[in-house]
Design a protein that fits this description.
Layout lengths: L3 E7 L3 H10 L8 E5 L2 H9 L6 E8 L8 H9 L10 E6 L4 H10 L4 E4 L4 H18 L13 H10 L5
Parallel strand pairs: 1-2, 1-3, 3-4, 4-5
Helix pairs in contact: 3-4
């Protein structure tokens, strides 16, 4: 059984969150999209997921938000033993993180990428496709289920190399 795969976007500015979710629409047939206005709301979404049937494939997280900083949320999620977060790809999504914050995110949060605002939609979609493909391969999910939406060539190569991924 393939778990329900989630993409969570954490962003306190409603217009920016709406734009991110709009850019992620090409993935909504295969991934459930959720938006959170702050770290506490993101934690509620994650806490509401079922460890038997749900996984967070990707989280985009703004850095400067009311309450908890995005880097601190990502560090906490990285250290979690919650099976919902196994193999989760993490992206710091901000225009305000300083050099030290970015280094901290890379070293302590297992950050997979950094995206500066404003972003270019086509590059953002391509990055998302790459990170979700990385997730599917790392989680050993059946690649055939994702051929239409993710990096087809990489999935086909993995399928050719490892027959257990079909």
């Amino acid at each position: 059984m393939i778990p329900t795969l989630h993409i969570i976007c954490v962003e306190d500015e409603t217009a920016v969150l709406d734009a991110v979710l709009r850019d992620l629409r090409p993935f909504e047939d295969s991934f459930r999209l959720s938006g959170a206005g702050d770290a506490a709301e993101a934690r509620e979404i994650i806490a509401g997921l079922d460890a038997e049937t749900d996984r967070v494939a990707l989280i985009y997280c703004d850095h400067i938000m009311p309450g908890e900083r995005g880097v601190d949320l990502l560090i906490d999620l990285h250290g979690s033993e919650n099976p919902v977060l196994a193999h989760t790809r993490k992206v710091l999504f901000t225009g305000q993180a300083g050099h030290d914050d970015t280094i901290t995110a890379i070293n302590r949060a297992g950050l997979n990428h950094y995206v500066e605002k404003p972003w270019e939609a086509a590059a953002f979609v391509a990055l998302t496709k790459k990170l979700l493909t990385d997730y599917v391969l790392a989680a050993h999910l059946p690649v055939m289920s994702f051929m239409a939406v993710l990096e087809t060539e990489r999935l086909a190569d993995a399928l050719h190399d490892d027959e257990t991924l079909s």
